[in-house]
Structure formats: structure tokens, C-alpha cells
Amino acid sequence: MHKNPSSWWIYFSDIFGISLLFIAVTGIMMIKDEKKTFKRRGWKLAITGLLFPILFLLFLNI
Q1: Which of 12, 27, 33, 41 makes the best surface tag, with the fewest CB within 10 Å?
Q2: pLDDT one-digit tens code per residue, 11-60
Q3: Cα separation of 36 and 42, whole Å?
Q4: 8 Å CB contact between 44 and 51
Q5: Distance (Å, whole) CA 57 – CA 50
């Protein structure tokens, strides 16, 4: 993405990515309502959230 990425940029992006994963995992665990758990509704939202970027990347490469 960058022509000459310095080492601080690589560390920053790794820490930022790990932080986003941590926020996503803890957000999944916070839900207490039985009707809104990951097993009932969350997996559909997760698949939808993964499907759009994958389709975008597939169609962008063509």
C-alpha cells in the first residue's frame, strides 16, 4: 500500500488490527439477551459482514 513503509507503521497497523479483533470478540461476548445471541442471530450478521468485502474484492479483480 505504501512505497516505503517504515517499521513504526508496520507495528502500528499490527497493534491496530489486534485491537479491532479484541473489540469484536468482546462485543460478541457482551450480549446477554437470549433472543439476540451469536448462535441465533449473530452468525447471520457475521457472514453478511464477511460476504460484502469478499464479493467486492472478487469483482474488483475481474
Answers
A1: 33
A2: 888 889 899 999 888 877 776 766 767 777 778 888 888 898 888 888 88
A3: 7
A4: no
A5: 11
Q: How far is 5 from 17, CA to CA, in rounded Å?
A: 17
- Residue 55's H or E segment, with its range, is helix 43-61
Q: Assess contact for 14 and 4: CB atoms under 8 A.
A: no
pLDDT tops 60 at residue 2: no
What CA–CA distance (Å, rounded) separates 32 from 25?
A: 14
The answer to whether 28 and 45 are in contact (CB under 8 A) is no
At which residue does the C-alpha cell 485491537 appear?
Answer: 19
The C-alpha cell of 12 is what?
502500528
